[in-house]
Amino acid sequence: MRDVMRWKNAALLALAVLAVGCSSNTKKELPPAELSDFEEEVVLQEEWSRSIGEGQGETFNMLVPAVDGERIFAADVEGLVMALDRLTGKVIWKQDLEAPVSGAVGAGYGLVLLGTLKGEVIALDAASGDEKWRSRVTSEVLAAPAVNGDVVLVQTQDDRLIAFDADSGKQRWIFENTPAVLTLRGTGSPVLTNRLAIAGLSSGKVIAVDTQRGLPVWEQRVAIPQGRSELDRVVDIDGGLLLSGGTLYVVSYQGRVAALELESGRVLWQREASSSVGVAQGFGNVYVSLADGSVEGIDERSASALWNNDALARRQLSAPEVFSSYVAFGDLEGYLHLISQVDGRFVGRKRVDSDGLRARPLVVGSWLYAYGNGGKLVALTIK
């Protein structure tokens, strides 16, 4: 436990050093870019909105809702979990976990899954909200658990992968990894198929292990730590992994964005990039919210940039998501932006939550769900 706490302190120190480093490199820290006017081509219409308790809370949490069937599940930092009809916003059930939630929400196969700052994994019945089981892990869970119907997979803050029996919550196996010396606070949600459990690590590697026994299948390095200081060598994969067909997409901080072959881990293409929030994919392109506040569209065939929209510098953008013919993402002032997949121009904008919009937008068909930092969950369609 002492080693775990020491590592947690190192993680928090990394954030502090990042902040100091940024401010000391300039006489005055530059403010977020102001929003520029544009000719609106798309109108986002609010279908419904609900308040989900305290939302993300005061600390840097990344709680993301999940849709399973016709229900959307969301949680706040204090442990309030809600199931809503995704088309009407009607509340189906509420549950108070009485625990600080830090990894949410995973949903599927009749389960709603959450992780806590106390190192717990909690499984609720998706139909009723009743607690099915609660199991301990080695450290904080900062991203949503995954489920394939047989096992529940959790990635902990100390880079361990732990699998539990989906029915009972009994631990099946644990896969150990050595975390980096300094790291950003957070992890991405793991990807789980019937055969493979896949995760991005603070070391800049992506690993795949067998779901039944937790044995290694392949390992691929996406980012190589560079520089003299430990701060320069931070290469976390915090934005999660995106699986589309047989291709796995990943981006690291101070490293690369890459496409990997799912079964082998072979690099299909890669390109220099720095992001801690993740990628989206559509129309043969990959879209990345970069650490400097720009958004880039990348052609998968050539791995070259199609366009770069840098009008939102330093606005702390969320991960992007493909929505119809557009790319959607949020910012620190709670605006949801829509840009064209073709050339990256602005086409629409709507303010969702004045406390900010950190969580990745969730898209299901013609509906987009945005969860603001202050707890406002909004369902939007294109008018």
Automatic annotation (TrEMBL):
Domain of life: Bacteria
Membrane topology: Lipid-anchor
Bilayer-spanning residue ranges: none
Keywords: Cell outer membrane, Lipoprotein, Membrane, Palmitate, Signal
Record PROSITE patterns: PROKAR_LIPOPROTEIN
Domain Pyrrolo-quinoline quinone repeat, residue spans: 78-308
Main location: membrane
SMART domains xref list: PQQ
Keyword Secreted set for record: no
Family matches, as Pfam families: PQQ_2
Signal peptide limits: 1-19
Family: Belongs to the BamB family.
Function (record text): Part of the outer membrane protein assembly complex, which is involved in assembly and insertion of beta-barrel proteins into the outer membrane.
Record text on subunit structure and interactions: Part of the Bam complex.
NCBIfam families cross-referenced by the UniProt entry: assembly_YfgL (TIGR03300)
Name of the featured protein: Outer membrane protein assembly factor BamB
